[in-house]
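Re: the request from the purification team.
They wanted to know what the chain is likely to look like in 3D before they choose a buffer screen. I agreed to run a prediction and write the result into the notebook, where they can find it.
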Amino acid sequence: MKVLLIIDVQNDFCPGGALAVGGGNEVVPVINSIIWKFNRVVATQDWHPADHSSFASNHKGKKPFDEIELNGYRQTLWPDHCVQGSRGADFHPDLNTTLVDLIVRKGTSSDIDSYSAFLENDKKTKTGLDGYLNSIGTTEVFVCGLATDYCVYYSAMDAHMIGFKTAVIIDACRGIDVPEGSLTKVIASMREAGIRIVESGAL
């Protein structure tokens, strides 16, 4: 049972969005070309309430990309993005969602962020995705989407930690790479953990 996990291919993470990833829209045709090769497809959406604690606008005197201490962990503050029900939270309009079996919405609680598709940033609160994958007999998880060095990275590392054989489809991802070099570091970190880095053409 091979599952494709499409991470946050949403308008706000694509060019013109509130928190755009450079070339974020370029993952869409790659994903569309491979989506049919998997037994199941899961897509995630950042789905934040307007008062979300990761938004710089909700912290007086703070600006996007500042860091604060939040509930015992470091939190990067972001521009308002992927607000529940907004156009920015919608999937990119060209993404083929017809074959998506399950949508997991994350970051839905005001007081905690969630980069990973599996765990919120407290590393304790589950989204429930692991239970779904186990219930359908998943053996392998293939991760793609946005952004390589944030939500893709944390999702892949958690999938591996939970015990799934995990691969990242690197040409179906785009990263932020801030500070410069962070993208190279997270790819090396995933490889060291035992996560395969593959190209879509090799699937």
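For the purification team: The CA atoms of residues 147 and 202 lie 21 Å apart.
Please add any questions underneath this entry.
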